[in-house]
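Please decode residue identities from the backbone states below.
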């Protein structure tokens, strides 16, 4: 008689700053077989803390959150807790959201119209070493791969909106997904100096958050999404 192997449920932390959305996701996951919700976080800092405390298998990560957004939280989790995988669960599927999240180490990417079965498949996929991407995200990546290689474009004669060279440099590092601490190390300055540069460039450009800064850098042609 063959002994059946029972696989334990995947232990999941949900990170989303909107209480109604977060509680709804937790409730949905509670109805699904193969998933056990072990914690819920209201921002990226809390998500990192819960991963350190609970060592979940997967974090379902929103991107637009206060204090510490999903990209920065993903980078920190993958660097500090490589045993935990990250699946992005967000409203946004634009290049400025998708590529920084994947570069930060997310193995899955779903939009919030995903059903329960799709979430379970994504969780199982990343735990088995595969990518957990929604069909629309897979199509976007294939489209990007099939696009002709863009010709190099000359850079702007001077930084846009009166940004200084240093502020522009900080903006480009933000677009690469670096945290304030990582930017400080890259530029050999203090974190406080980085925060000052960010405050200045936000004031000059009318930006309010890092995700907007990424889209701004793409829109001004300062950076381009990766081809693959």
């Amino acid at each position: 008689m063959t002994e059946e192997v029972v696989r334990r449920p995947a232990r999941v932390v949900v990170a989303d700053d909107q209480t109604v959305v977060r509680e709804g996701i937790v409730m949905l996951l509670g109805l699904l077989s193969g998933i056990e919700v072990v914690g819920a976080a209201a921002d990226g800092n809390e998500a990192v803390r819960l991963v350190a405390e609970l060592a979940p298998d997967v974090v379902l990560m929103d991107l637009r959150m206060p204090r510490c957004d999903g990209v920065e939280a993903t980078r920190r989790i993958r660097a500090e807790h490589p045993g935990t995988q990250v699946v992005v669960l967000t409203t946004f599927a634009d290049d400025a959201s998708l590529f920084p999240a994947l570069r930060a180490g997310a193995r899955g990417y779903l939009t919030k119209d995903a059903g329960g079965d799709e979430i379970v498949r994504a969780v199982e996929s990343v735990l088995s070493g595969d990518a957990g991407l929604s069909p629309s995200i897979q199509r976007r990546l294939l489209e990007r791969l099939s696009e002709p290689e863009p010709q190099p474009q000359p850079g702007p004669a001077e930084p846009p909106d009166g940004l200084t060279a240093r502020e522009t440099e900080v903006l480009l590092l933000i677009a690469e997904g670096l945290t304030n601490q990582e930017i400080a190390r890259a530029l050999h300055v203090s974190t406080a100096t980085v925060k000052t540069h960010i405050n200045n460039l936000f004031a000059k450009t009318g930006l309010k958050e890092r995700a907007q800064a990424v889209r701004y850098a793409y829109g001004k042609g300062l950076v381009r999404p990766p081809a693959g």
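Observation: The CA atoms of residues 200 and 208 lie 11 Å apart.
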